[in-house]
Amino acid sequence: xxxxxxxxxxxxxxxxxxxxxxxxxxxxxxxxxxxxxxxxxxxxxxxxxxxxxxxxxxxxxxxxxxxxxxxxxxxxxxxxxxxxxxxxx
Length: 89
Prior knowledge:
By secondary structure, the protein is mostly helical. The chain is built from three helices and no strands.
């Protein structure tokens, strides 16, 4: 006959004993680290698209110079449009 506090399912550790304490803690630490790493990866990929290819918000410095030349009248509209097409690809 089993009394209170003896056998599996009884007591403070529910029959697991002390051997699983460090293992469980290591598993939970690994889960927390994985979640933090995933969050960091997602934030980095959303905030820094230049790391993963083309950056849609960034303009070419050559395009800025081209617009300035067109605004000053150094080149005509046809030249501007052709050079802009060449720069943008």
